[in-house]
Amino acid sequence: PANQGSSVGITKAHNQKELLSGIKLALIHDHKIIVEQAVSNVREIECAFLGPNHVPESSLLGEIIPGNEFYDYAAKYIQDNSRAIIPADLPKKLALDIQASARLAFRVLDCTGLARIDFLLDSKTNQYYLNELNTIPGFTPISMYPKLWEASGLSYSKLLDKLITLALVRHTQKSTLNLSH
């Protein structure tokens, strides 16, 4: 499903029969679906962003070690067998490259406020792929977004303060626009 969250309706297919079954499942959850080529030797790397579009702050990178074959809905919410590693164990240059790509995506897509940007990394080649830019990331105690900021030195309460301040600034900026025609 193109417009769901939390990996609802996501399937990893190993053959054509599983692909067709996965398409049917996805179509139960959305009229628009995405079919992607799998990344081999995959690692899921995540980065949190906060701030205005032109100067966003980024967190440390984190890695999800799924308890299942991939980080599906069950691995996220039902089973207690996935782990988060913060900071992700990556070579410094690779980590900086991923953060730079995430920052570019945040800016190009004109994000503001908050986002969590997820990458799939081939652990053998270190080739990485933008997987998802989530503008409404989870904000629960088990969610990566606040965990990434906490590990980066920003407490939950300070994170909330910053988000409120950003919203107030954005509201003030928008209120100066003439939107009547």
UniProtKB/TrEMBL annotation:
Name the Gene Ontology biological process terms: cell wall organization; peptidoglycan biosynthetic process; regulation of cell shape
**Where does the ATP-grasp domain lie?**
1-165
Keywords of the record = ATP-binding, Cell shape, Cell wall biogenesis/degradation, Ligase, Magnesium, Manganese, Metal-binding, Nucleotide-binding, Peptidoglycan synthesis
A GO-annotated cellular component = cytosol
Record's InterPro entries?
A: ATP-grasp, ATP_grasp_subdomain_1, D-Ala_lig_Van_CS, Dala_Dala_lig_C
Q: Which cofactor does it need?
A: Mg(2+); Mn(2+)
Q: Which Pfam families match?
A: Dala_Dala_lig_C
Query: Does this UniProt record's set of keywords contain ATP-binding?
Result: yes
Q: Name one GO molecular function term.
A: metal ion binding
Annotated transmembrane regions: none
Name the source's superkingdom: Bacteria
Give the family from UniProt: Belongs to the D-alanine--D-alanine ligase family.
This chain's protein is named: D-alanine--D-alanine ligase A
